[in-house]
């Protein structure tokens, strides 16, 4: 049986329908009602996120489609809007085409973590990917993360991000910390006492603290960026997908339901949500669903730490505290773990393990797509020197999307830009081989962790001990 959840709206008379319905805000008295799906992952993927459900009435961007534009950006997510702002800084006329509504894709459905390093990489593996450019990339990513936190403006945000280690390997951690520091990244070793203070848990004994990381409301962030683009003269056209891109000698013709737009340069930023002409960005990655949830933690008390954190498991555990004594967490969707009850049980187990107290009720549940690449780096493609596309946040999208939007815009405009290699291999994404492999590794890790916990829980008492 399905069930409903009440979410207080920040603007009490106004509530939003799920963004996938492409509806405009509707007005009601009282509370915003969000019906939660029970079994079907596809319904979780269109259920409003906690950020979307609680947002007040937003600005509708319905600019008229211009005749031409210096730069056309396809996709009004964080990456696309960062690209638009970069092009405006360069003095270009800019048009942003959004197939749905701003924040309907990954930018409004993620956890809001701002991670200042490519967390699936070590300093050594990043050097293997980028060579001498590794330091430049790492520092630029850290700088982009700082900008994301400053953009959040009046919205609440948390500063600092922790990566606890799920196993005991202090020498390895020290080597990783030193490697990042050598690349110009601010990072510190963190011991159990510090993590217990910052995170509110004694579950981990060591980890890495990144002061330039943090967490924001991603839906508020993308609205702020869109308003900034519009206030500076950029055009944003919602509910206007780019259907086709036709290269001509003198220009690029972008076909839309509203007519044809002529552009000199096109940046495609659809990521794992690409459709129509931006479908190339979805094909360049292996999409994997991430289920996200919020739980009431009132009974746990003030011991729940404020700092957001994600550990180093393949089946990553991540947590951040929200307002009104809530905690956000989540898990990757596997074929046998997609229903509300299954997800709720799994995440409640994790919360109980981390905070040593049972959590309260599940309040909100939704899902979003994560774009995976075989080398954990963005997939960049340029079928024409005037067209460039990218995809593949690998679950760490806010800082990386900002960096990629800026960098690829500079490359389109012929400026000195961060040199990232174009994608060389499509094999991993044929038949979603990479997605299958990732699910297998996560399933094995999840099984191993639960088996280990069961073994510890059922370990025989020492001889002579009383029960």
TrEMBL record:
One of its GO terms (molecular function) is oxidoreductase activity. Gene3D superfamilies: D-Amino Acid Oxidase, subunit A, domain 2, FAD/NAD(P)-binding domain. Residues 70-411 form the FAD dependent oxidoreductase domain. This is FAD dependent oxidoreductase domain-containing protein. It holds the Pfam family DAO. The keyword Nucleotidyltransferase does not apply. The keyword Transcription regulation does not apply. PANTHER family: FAD DEPENDENT OXIDOREDUCTASE DOMAIN-CONTAINING PROTEIN, SARCOSINE DEHYDROGENASE-RELATED. It comes from Pseudomonas laurylsulfativorans. Keywords: Oxidoreductase.
